[in-house]
Design a protein that fits this description.
Layout (H helix, E strand, L loop, with lengths): L4 H6 L16 E2 L7 E6 L4 H6 L1 H11 L3 E5 L6 H11 L2 E6 L6 H11 L3 E4 L14 H5 L3 H20 L3 E5 L7 E2 L2 E2 H8 L5 E6 H6 L4 H7 L4 E6 L1 E3 L15 E3 L8 H8 L6 E4 L10 H15 L2 E2 L5 E2 L2
Parallel strand pairs: 1-15, 2-3, 2-13, 2-14, 3-4, 4-5, 5-6, 6-9, 9-10, 10-13
Antiparallel strand pairs: 7-8, 11-12
C-alpha cells in the first residue's frame, strides 16, 4: 500500500447523513460500567480491504467488531458499501474523508450507509493551503495557525449541520507541542464552537506526546463523542511528530505502554458513544487481521466492550 497514514489524515474531512440507529439508543441494563460495541477504524486493515472488501468485513465481524469507521470507499457505489456492511453485520457511525473527497462528494455515501459523524484532522492553515505541507511545516505551526484551523472547523461544522451531520475533530500528537506556555490543541478547543465541533480523542497520539488522555476526557467530557484506541511502545521522551522516524513504535493494544483501563473508566462519565481500535503501520509482529484480534481480546479482558451492536449504560 503506497498511501500513508500521514496522507490519510492530512485529507481528513468527511460527510455523513443523520439517521436513527440502534447504536444511538442506549439500552438500560443493571450494570456497573458503560460498555461500548467493539469498533474498528478500517484504515487498520486497508490492504486487506483493497484485495477483498466484503470478505475482509466478514472477518472483522467474526472477530467481534460490530462498529466501524470508514476511511475511503474503495471505488464502490454507496449501495454496495451498505450491502457489504449489512451482510457482515457491521454498522458505520463515522466517516473520514479520503482521497481528497469533499463533504459534498461523500454525502451520498454517508447518507446511504447511515453514518452520523464526519471526522476531520490536521487541516492545513490558510498560509499553507497553496502547497503540500512538509514535516517542518507541521512542526512550525503556531497558536495563530490553530486559531485559523479552528475557524475552518467551525465553517465545516456549519456545513455538516446543514447536511444533518456532526463534525468531530481528530487529534494527533503534533497539536500537543508546547507553544510559548500553551499547546495548540487547547487553542483549537477554545476557538471552536462547542456545538458545531465535537471531538474524537486519539488516545495513542495524545499519549505519545506525553499527555494524559484521561485528563482531557475528564475535562472535556461533554465534547468528546468517540475514542481511537491505539498503542505505542512509548519512550521517555514525548513525540510531536507523525512521521515514522519521529514517533514511537506502534503495536497491538496491551502490547505497548498505554494502560486503557483508567482511560475507559474516565470515558464512562463522558459522552463517548463509540470506541474504535486503530493500529498504525508497519505491522512488525503479525498481519493486521491477527493484530486486531489481539487488540479485541485486550479490550474484552478489560470488560469495557459489549458484543452487542449498541452501547450499554447503567441506571
Amino acid at each position: 500500500m503506497k498511501s500513508s497514514r500521514r496522507d490519510f489524515v492530512i485529507q481528513g474531512s468527511a460527510a455523513l447523513a443523520s439517521g436513527t440507529l440502534l447504536l444511538n439508543t442506549p439500552l438500560r441494563l443493571q450494570a456497573e460500567t458503560f460498555r461500548w460495541p467493539a469498533g474498528l477504524q478500517l484504515y487498520t486493515v486497508m490492504e486487506a480491504l483493497q484485495k477483498d472488501f466484503a470478505g475482509t468485513l466478514h472477518q472483522v465481524s467474526a472477530i467481534g467488531y460490530k462498529q466501524v469507521e470508514m476511511a475511503g470507499f474503495f471505488g464502490k457505489k454507496p449501495a454496495d458499501v451498505k450491502t457489504a456492511l449489512d451482510n457482515a453485520g457491521l454498522q458505520c457511525g463515522s466517516v473520514f474523508i479520503f482521497g481528497g473527497m469533499s463533504l459534498a462528494e461523500t454525502a451520498e455515501y454517508a447518507s446511504t450507509i447511515g453514518a452520523k459523524y464526519v471526522a476531520t484532522s490536521v487541516l492545513p492553515p490558510t498560509r499553507f493551503q497553496s502547497k503540500k505541507m512538509t514535516r517542518d511545516d507541521y512542526q512550525a505551526l503556531t497558536l495563530d495557525d490553530y486559531k485559523d484551523i479552528a475557524d475552518q472547523c467551525n465553517r465545516m461544522g456549519e456545513q455538516a449541520r446543514k447536511a444533518g451531520l456532526q463534525l468531530v475533530y481528530h487529534n494527533h500528537n503534533v497539536e500537543f507541542k508546547p507553544l510559548h506556555g500553551r499547546i495548540g490543541y487547547d487553542q483549537l478547543l477554545e476557538s471552536t464552537d462547542t456545538n458545531l465541533v465535537k471531538l474524537q480523542l486519539d488516545c495513542g497520539w495524545i499519549s505519545a506526546a506525553g499527555v494524559s488522555a484521561e485528563s482531557y476526557i475528564s475535562k472535556y467530557g461533554d465534547r468528546y463523542r468517540m475514542l481511537h484506541l491505539k498503542d505505542f511502545k512509548l519512550t521517555s521522551t514525548p513525540s510531536y511528530g507523525m512521521w515514522p522516524e519521529e514517533r514511537p513504535e506502534p503495536t497491538e493494544l496491551g502490547q505497548g505502554k498505554i494502560d486503557y483501563k483508567p482511560i475507559l473508566k474516565a470515558a464512562e462519565k463522558a459522552e463517548i458513544e463509540w470506541c474504535y481500535v486503530e493500529q498504525e503501520p508497519p505491522f512488525t509482529e503479525m498481519p493486521p487481521l491477527e493484530a486486531i484480534k489481539v487488540s479485541y481480546n485486550y479490550l474484552r479482558s478489560l470488560k469495557f466492550i459489549s458484543r452487542r451492536g449498541y452501547r450499554v449504560s447503567h441506571g
